[in-house]
Amino acid sequence: MKILGIAGEFITGTPLYAWVILVFLIYQGLKHKKDRKVVLIKSFLAPAVFIVWGLTKVFIYFAYPAQTAGIYIVFAMAGMVVGFLLCSKRQKFYIIDSTIMKKGNSFSLIVNIINYLIQYGLNAYTAIMNNVAADLQFNIVYGATAGFSVGIFIGGIMNTIKSIKLLQKEKK
After folding, report:
1. Would you state the pLDDT for residue 5?
2. 111 pairs with which residues across the strands?
3. How far, in Å, CA of 141 to CA of 118, rounded?
4. 82: number of CA atoms within 13 Å, CB side?
5. pLDDT value at residue 124
6. pLDDT score, position 125
7. Strand partners for 100
8. Which helix (DSSP H) or strand (DSSP E) does residue 95 occupy?
9. Count of the separate structural domains present in the chain
10. How far is CA 20 from CA 14, 16, 17, in A?
């Protein structure tokens, strides 16, 4: 019964915007399971959601916003490298009728869900434990974790840009 109580609190205590974000990310990830035309600007939607969600928390609630943002940026760069390498292995691109296409896979859905769980978990913990926003160690962990997860998205975008350039070069 205790598990049902926790699940009930989880469901009722989650803000509506968090459910909307989750539905959007699942929808986007499921769309990416099919081959599709590459529209680079759309690649920025998911990272933008996580950047706004994470940094808003940092600058509004945290006691050490400058330090947290600095750690966030450093770990975002590390995440970019990891994301680039992961996507280089898992994302495939090709051209059909002068249109650059991306082969469908589950990678985006997995990354979306993992990033959501990380971001949601950090923010839920911050909401439950009111005083952690004033704790430098938690601020550092939050900045590192949130930054790294956003960096993975950005690394994927960098891989897409590199792949587009290579395909365009081969086409000439």
Report:
1. 66
2. none
3. 12
4. 14
5. 83
6. 84
7. 95
8. strand 93-96
9. 1
10. 11, 6, 5
Domain region containing 78:
2-171
> In DSSP terms, which residues pair with 95 in a beta bridge?
100
| Residues whose CB falls within 8 Å of the CB of residue 74, separated by 6 or more in sequence, listed in order | 144, 147
Q: Please report the pLDDT score of residue 3 as a whole number.
A: 67
Coil, strand, or helix at residue 63?
A: coil
C-alpha to C-alpha distance for 151 and 172, rounded to whole angstroms: 32
Kindly give the confidence (pLDDT) of every residue in the chain, 172 residues in length, as a single tens digit, with 9 standing for 90 and above: 666 666 666 677 778 888 898 898 899 889 989 999 988 888 888 888 889 988 998 999 999 999 999 999 999 999 999 999 999 998 898 888 888 889 998 988 898 898 888 888 888 888 888 799 999 999 999 999 999 999 999 999 999 999 989 888 887 6
3 state SS of 139: helix
CA distance 120 to 101: 32
CA 76, 128, 25, 30 dihedral sign is positive
Q: Give the residue carrying structure tokens 């968090």.
A: 18
Q: What's the sign of the alpha-carbon dihedral 41, 84, 29, 112?
A: negative
| Phi, psi (deg, nearest 5) at residue 35 | -60, 140
Q: In angstroms, how far is CA 146 from the centroid of its own chain?
A: 8
